[in-house]
Every structure is written in structure tokens, then in C-alpha cells.
Write a structure and sequence with these properties.
With about 140 residues, this protein is mainly α. It is about 45% helix and about 0% strand.
Length: about 140
């Protein structure tokens, strides 16, 4: 089942988002432009999940995650940084699920486990990271 879009031309899309940022989710993805998506994230970070991944930028992803940590799951993996991951897991340890292995530093894992020890199920790396797990859990 495909999604129905209310705005199917570029002019309709521009008019709709000028009227309200909430209309963004009803625009066909192929009508999105870099300028439009940046404006949508700056005006309402809840629009981030509706942005085409190829239009995401590092700056946009950082803003989206900073304002709503649950946007982390919508960020392209190659744009996630350890700093971004740290901020997200400090607010909610379960965000560790969306942190790629290369960003799961000892600090990130410790912060996630401090927030919620059950986040240990999302640790993707072994070895040095087991040390962080043991320290955080007091084992």
C-alpha cells in the first residue's frame, strides 16, 4: 500500500509548506529540495522523519537530533557521529539501538547504560566495550 500525497506538483508543495510546516509530510518525496528540507527542519524538527535520506546533511541531522533525540533513528548512518550519539543516549539510553558500531565508544555506552541498563542489548561492539558494560553495571 503506497502513501497518498496531497501535494503532487512543486508549486503545490511550496504553497503548502509556506502555509504550514505540518503540510510537509504530505509532499511527494521527489518534490523535496535541499532548501525546502532545511527550512522544514529549522522550523519544525518533527518533520525530519519525512525528509528524503539523500537530502540530509550533517548539520541538519545534528539540529534534528539536538531538538528531539528520537530523530536519531531517522538519520543516515554515515551522518551519525559519536557526539550526536552521546547526546541522544544521555537523554534516552534506548537510542543506543540506532547508534552504529563505529560510534559506540566507551563514553556513549556508559551514558546509555547509566540512563537505562537494559540498553545493553544494543551494544554492537565487544572487547573494550565490555569494560564499559562491566563498569556501568558494577560487575
Amino acid at each position: 500500500m503506497s502513501k497518498e500525497y496531497k501535494y503532487n506538483t512543486y508549486k503545490e508543495a511550496l504553497d503548502a509548506v509556506r502555509e504550514s510546516v505540518y503540510n510537509f509530510r504530505f509532499i511527494r518525496p521527489d518534490l523535496q529540495t535541499p532548501e525546502m528540507v532545511l527550512d522544514m527542519v529549522l522550523r519544525n524538527y518533527f518533520n525530519f522523519p519525512h525528509i528524503r535520506p539523500d537530502l540530509q546533511t550533517p548539520e541538519m541531522a545534528l539540529v534534528a537530533v539536538k531538538h528531539w533525540v528520537f530523530n536519531l533513528k531517522h538519520v543516515r548512518l554515515d551522518l551519525i557521529t559519536s557526539k550526536m550519539a552521546l547526546g541522544a543516549v544521555k537523554c534516552n539510553g534506548w537510542n543506543l539501538e540506532h547508534v552504529p558500531a563505529n560510534c559506540q565508544t566507551k563514553e556513549v555506552i556508559e551514558a546509555a547504560l547509566k540512563d537505562d541498563p537494559k540498553a545493553k542489548q544494543y551494544i554492537k561492539t565487544k572487547g573494550l566495550m565490555m569494560e564499559a558494560l562491566e563498569e556501568a553495571l558494577g560487575e
